[in-house]
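Example with several molecule types.
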Amino acid sequence: MAIVVQLLSRNNKIIHQQRFAHDEITVGRGYQNDLRLDDPYICAHHMQINRDPLSGALLCQDLESINGTKINHDICTMSNLHDQDIITIGRTHLRIFDADAEVAPTLRLSDFEENISWLNKKRIALGLTFIVFLFAAYSNFIASFDEIKSSRLVLTTLGQLLLFSIWPLLVAGLSRLNKKESRLASQFSLLWLFLLLMEIFTFLRGVIDFNFPQLPLVAGLDALFYAVSAFAFIWMTLFVAFHQTSKRRNIISGLMSFLLIFGLYFEDVVEEESFNSRPSYNLPLLPSTYHFHEPMGTEEWINETESLFEKLEQKRLAEESN
Amino acid sequence: MLSINTYAQERAQQLFNHYKSGLFQIQIIELGSGNKSAIGSGFGINESGLIASNYHVVSDYVQYPDKYRIQYLSATGMEGELTLQDFDVVNDLAILQLGEIPKQYLPFNLASNLPEQGVPIYSLGNPHDLGMIVVPGTFNGLKKTSFYQRIHFTGSINPGMSGGPVVNANGEVVGVNVATAGNQIGFLIPLEKLKSLLDRVDGQVRKNEFKLKIENQLIANQQKLVSALLNREWNKSKLGNALVPDSVAEFISCWGDSNAEDKKAQYLSVENRCRLGEQIYINRQFQTGAVEMEFEWLQSDVFGQHKFYTFFSDRVVGAGPGNPSNKDDVTNYQCQNEAHENANGVHSKTILCLRAYKHYSSLYDVLFIAATLDYEQAGLITHFTLSGVTKASAQAFTGKFLEATSWQ
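Resulting structure tokens for the full complex:
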């Protein structure tokens, strides 16, 4: 029969833990105590823990200390202790329980964990960083129509990558704070893979848009794709960074990706179409090698406008009835 | 110079004295507050008290007849009611009837023909509550490049003089002032337009027919305008590797621009823009009747094809309508994106945007823009806007426009 004492931080994280083989523990600032705490607000003989010989339950007793003993924030002189009770003496938080207390069931080590271990290789992370850098530099180059110096291009691109790096650094830092391995390389690899995926998707989307601009449901499928990839990205990030139950991880990733998509499409969903004297149109252009769609002749083109006139007439009638 | 000016001033003074009883300030009164919402000028044209003015002076009333009324203020300070008899929205004319004919009322006589070029003419009006003013100027003939025939008048007309008469040295009316703020050169509506409106007047127009009347006038006008554009061979001129329409009609003026002088530019841009100079005023926020055509050739030896097309995509966005509008008058634009190839083998991506007129259901504003795909590092942007046209006109014009470009 043994008793476990855990010394807790302000937000109840375990700082130190000790197991006592006997059934009586004295706690105080004095040197003869079993558990000595160096907290000026604690008395020399502050409190003691006994085991009730009949029931085996633990009893906590205050030894008329100046600042008293609190169990779950309530002052008490003598009380039964339960497993999750938090004892506060002076400025110190303790949890004291029977060493026989049950621990949480063992988590199964997932194969997935093994399968993504390559992400944590520094070579992979560095290689991906380089590829993303090239992609980003090319995008910047393509989009600047004035004369551009290569040094300036490199600096701008590095600045962008640095900005993106905040995310993996933040997550890795949080993971470290939680006493877990930070796995910074994995976090970077994940981010770069996600960005590359987005880049490729945007390009493919552009080619589809260029060929089939009137395709229905495209906006909805876009949103779905973004939602799924954001969920996957956040889920993986959490998987690498924290030891959580899958349920908790699913809930957090679900909520975060929902918020992201909601933010992205907020205007379309919530806002009513307001009057704009200018048309909002999109005419993405790509070299004709990307054009697989047979162009129309003038007559057919004119016939196609019929549906536009019809749509507009419905819109006019709808606005009239409002 | 001094003597000419003095002569003109004296002459003006004589005119003022003789005709002040036939000149009125026209006031549009908001019924709720009793305040003036607009003022302009008007003048008597016959013994029974018919008054001529501009449509735009009384447009508040025409748009919202239940919110406004029209009254006059004579040169002697007398006020009285006016009723709207008829109007011509295209030529910006309105005919009103004096509720009660004031004493000493002397209407203007209409001239039988237009004066010679260079002859002095006088623009009259009552722009402020100060009484009549007279602006001497010179008759410079009909504006040659005008679809809505206007007289060119050198002399600045104050906005409040709109609707006032322009008379020759004998005091006979040769035109009506149309003035917009900030224009140093005034334009006048020629007498012919006023005469033909007068011939049509037969009693008061009913309030609930105002919108229909405007629509019919706009439909007839766009018919005339679009057929004038369609029923002729369009001149073509070179723009980069392309042949594009140029000065398609005498009333459409064109000018070009290019960045060839810019040594640092990474690309060449040559453009040609054509436009109908005038628009039709419907209300304070809404005009129609605009025609614009724009062509831009872009070429770069520096950009690779991907970069060129990114640049090209960037240049085709942001086109806007040629006429000002308001949400009470038009719907939002609705656009359609297609791929097109014309009979000359010009392959392009096109955007057609339309918006409907809320009160004139058969009329639309059209905005078209297309970009060619035939060159790797060069391309042509073709663009036009039409405002206030029917579906048939829009389709016919677009059809002609689509076929109008070719490669050299």
